[in-house]
Structure formats: structure tokens, C-alpha cells
Design goal:
3 helices; 26 strands; mainly beta; about 10% helix
């Protein structure tokens, strides 16, 4: 009959209660499947790395042994016995690394950069996969005035390149060719107002003084604490606030809008017109119409009379009949067709 050899056994808790196994004695934990060997003082799990202070580490002589440092400067390090030396297995900081970045393989997130392409810590070449240029080549191309127009905010030639701010300023200036036409406060002030509000505008009349001197017919706009001036072009219009009227620039003067379109021939019934606010009606005497101080009479004493009290009809009872009993109507008294 074959023999069966069994070692001391029980649960992990029972082993703890039992205490230290004798030197060389084995113990098997039936619940955790761990095997321990004792030395008479403590139990060590079979297969567990040797551990203790680094100074207590045995000489390297058995390939495959592991030793874990539990205290001291190198606490936490794990060493492997190569048969001739203890080799550190784990690394805790970058300072523990040896070798170079060339040892890192290319990946999807990081890639190598050739040492020759680094100058003072910066890549000195740019590549799109087909074209590779150095920083010096790129700088030469960018700074080549023959290939690129240089920014020149003071230039006026069509080949001059302006900055974004200069372009914005020019657009704002161009907008003023329309904006000043919207409204001006007055066109008769010869001296600039003492306390103008931002964006107040005025048409400068002849004889202006102070800051407006020599700016006759121009539009002055107060902006950012100073007056800006705009020379009108033919067709500009401006609404004058204090007059509530619109004026247009005809190239010579500001004229009331529509004034240039009025045509009234003097001596034929109406005189005046143009930009005047009134038109005079002149009735020719001696043509059956009499003009008085307060009235105009057509056929004195008969027909229609216009005076200060209104319009009156003088009835002669021959040709016209006033019928008060029949709704105050005017009726024809007699109709005579005359003879051939």
C-alpha cells in the first residue's frame, strides 16, 4: 500500500492562533491555499519575496530570487537575483531611468524627433509630409518683399497693403460720406458751440470763427473731443434740426430740397418761388379784376366778391336768383339762347 505524507494543515486563522512553526516545518492553509514554512520564530509564505532592510539582503547567488526592501532609503524597491547581482525591478522616478529617448518607440500619440532637427530646444524644420523646410528658409520666404507686399498704412498706391486697423479706419471714414447727410443741428452758427455733444453735426456758414474758420459749407462733426470736417459732394442732403427742413448741396451752395425744381415765371400771375417761404399772387389791374388792400373783386358790385370776411355773392336778380325759401339755393333766373 502506498504511503501518504501530510504536512500540518488548517485554516489561516488557526495558523495565526497556532503561532510560529518549527524550523523547517511546513503548514498548509486549507481555506486560502497558502503554504508557510517556519523558522521557529515566524512563518514565511512559500514563494513570497524575501524582504527586509537592504543591508540584510543576502548575496546574489540563486537565479530567480526576489528581495523586497521594507525600510531605508530604497524602501519599496524590488530586486531580482540574476545569479551574480541584484537587479532592480521597479522604478519609482524618472531619475532612475537610463538610456535615451531613442529607446522610446514611435506611437500613435508620441513620436521621435531627430536630434539634428532640434536647435536650442526647438524644432528647426517644418514638414507637411512632402515638403520639408527649415526655419531659416521659411523666414527668408516671408521676408522677401518681392513675393509679399509689406504693410504700409501711409501708402496710397493700389499695391500697398494696409493693416486691419487701417482698413477699419478707412471704412469708418467712408461711412461718413453718408452719415453726415442724416442730420445737422444748425447751419447758421458762426462760432462752434462751447459744449457740443458727441456726434453733434453742423453746416458751417460763411464767416465762421474759431475752429470752424476757413471751413465754409463743410459739415463739422464733434467726435472723441475734436471736430472732424467733411467736404460735401454734389447730391449730399442734410436735415437741419432747428429749421425742420432738408437741404441739398448742388456743388456751390446748400439749397432747400426741391427749390431748384420750382419754375415760376414773373409777370404771368405768380412771382417768387425758388427757396422762398412765400409766393406772391399779382393780379393784373384793368382786366376786370380789382385788387384792394384786403380784398380782390371780380366785377365790382356784381358777381363774386372776395374780402376780409370771406367770399360773397352779389345777386342782381336778373341772371341769378337767391331762393331763401328753397334751401338757400342760387338759381338761374333766365336763360337766353340769343339769335342767329
Amino acid at each position: 500500500m502506498a504511503q501518504t505524507i501530510q504536512i500540518k494543515r488548517g485554516t489561516r486563522a488557526e495558523l495565526t492562533t497556532y503561532g510560529a512553526l518549527k524550523a523547517g516545518e511546513l503548514g498548509f492553509c486549507t481555506d486560502t491555499k497558502e503554504i508557510y514554512i517556519g523558522d521557529g520564530t515566524s512563518n514565511s509564505m512559500v514563494g513570497r519575496a524575501l524582504s527586509g532592510p537592504e543591508a540584510s539582503r543576502p548575496a546574489a547567488a540563486s537565479v530567480g530570487r526576489l528581495y523586497y526592501v521594507t525600510s531605508g532609503a530604497n524602501m519599496g524597491y524590488l530586486y531580482f537575483d540574476s545569479g551574480s547581482a541584484w537587479v532592480r525591478v521597479n522604478v519609482l522616478s524618472l531619475a532612475d531611468l537610463t538610456g535615451s529617448i531613442d529607446n522610446v518607440a514611435d506611437g500613435t500619440t508620441y513620436a521621435k524627433v531627430l536630434k539634428a532637427d532640434i536647435t536650442a530646444g526647438h524644432p528647426n524644420k517644418v514638414s507637411d509630409g512632402t515638403n520639408t523646410k527649415t526655419a531659416a528658409e521659411i523666414a527668408t520666404h516671408i521676408n522677401d518683399a518681392a513675393k509679399h507686399r509689406l504693410i504700409n498704412d501711409t501708402g496710397a498706391a493700389i499695391t500697398d497693403l494696409w493693416s486691419a486697423q487701417k482698413i477699419k479706419n478707412e471704412i469708418e471714414l467712408a461711412k461718413h460720406n453718408i452719415e453726415p447727410q442724416a442730420s445737422v443741428k444748425d447751419q447758421n452758427l458762426t462760432a462752434p458751440p462751447a459744449s457740443p455733444a458727441e456726434t453733434d453735426r453742423y453746416i458751417i456758414p460763411a464767416g465762421a470763427t474759431g475752429a470752424w474758420a476757413g471751413k465754409t459749407n463743410q459739415i463739422a462733426e464733434y467726435t472723441s473731443g475734436a471736430w472732424a470736417y467733411y467736404v460735401p459732394a454734389v447730391g449730399w442732403t442734410a436735415y437741419v434740426d432747428d429749421e425742420q427742413k432738408i437741404y441739398s448741396w448742388n456743388g456751390t451752395a446748400w439749397v432747400r430740397t426741391g427749390g431748384a425744381l420750382q419754375t415760376i415765371t414773373a409777370g404771368n400771375g405768380l412771382t417768387g418761388g425758388g427757396q422762398a417761404d412765400s409766393v406772391t399772387l399779382t393780379v393784373g389791374a384793368g382786366n376786370g379784376i380789382t385788387v384792394g388792400a384786403t380784398s380782390v373783386a371780380a366785377k365790382p358790385g356784381k358777381g363774386i366778391l372776395v374780402n376780409a370776411t370771406g367770399i360773397e355773392a352779389n345777386i342782381d336778380s336778373e341772371s341769378l336768383v337767391y331762393d331763401a325759401a328753397n334751401g338757400n339755393r342760387l338759381m338761374v333766373a333766365a336763360i337766353d339762347g340769343g339769335t342767329f
